[in-house]
Predict the structure.
Amino acid sequence: KSCQKPVDKYIEYDPVIILINAILCKAQAYRHILFNTKINIHGKLYIFCLLCEAYLRWLQLQDSSQNTDPDDLIRYAKEWDFYRMFGIASLEQTSFLVGIFITLWWMRPEMLKTKSDFVLLLKALLLSSYGKLLIIPAVIWEHDYTPLCLAFIKVFVLISNSQAIRVTLNLNRMLPWLAIFFGLILENGVVYLFQKMGWDV
C-alpha cells in the first residue's frame, strides 16, 4: 500500500542498485528504504553529517585566520571553535527541520496527526540528508571549484529532502518545496541572528 504497486520491485534488487536509485532520487527507491527496510541509522547519520558540516566551517574559520605558526597545530587541537561550529550547525539544522514541520502541519494538519507520522517524516528527512557526506571528498580534494561543489551538495540534499517528504506523506511536488523554502527561511533567520550576535558562522 505504501509503494502504490502490487509488489515492491526493490525487494529483489541488490542493495547497491537500491543505493544508486536513491542517489538518483527515484521515489520508488525512497519508498522501499522508508517502508520496507529496517534501517535504523538515521540518528548516527545525522550526527556524522553535523560533524562533517562543523569540520568544514571550522576549517574555513582556520583558513580565515591566516596564521602559519607551527605551534598553532597544538592550539587547534585544544580549540573549542570546532564544538561551537557543531552547536551552530545543530541549531541551524534543527531550525530547518522545525520550519518544514510547521509548514506541513499548517498546510496539511491531517497528514501529521500522530506521533508516528512525525517520527516517520523526521526519519525520512534525516536519512535523505546523506548527501552532506559528500563534504568529506570536497574538503579532501580541495581545489578552485570547492565552493561550487559545496553549492551542488546543498542543492542535492534539498532535492533529496523534497523526495523524502513527497514519498512519506504522499504529496505532489509543490508542497514539499514550499516546506523546504520555509525551512530555509527559518534556518537563514538563525544564521542572521548569530551574525548579529557577532559569532562567526
Summary: The CA atoms of residues 59 and 81 lie 10 Å apart.
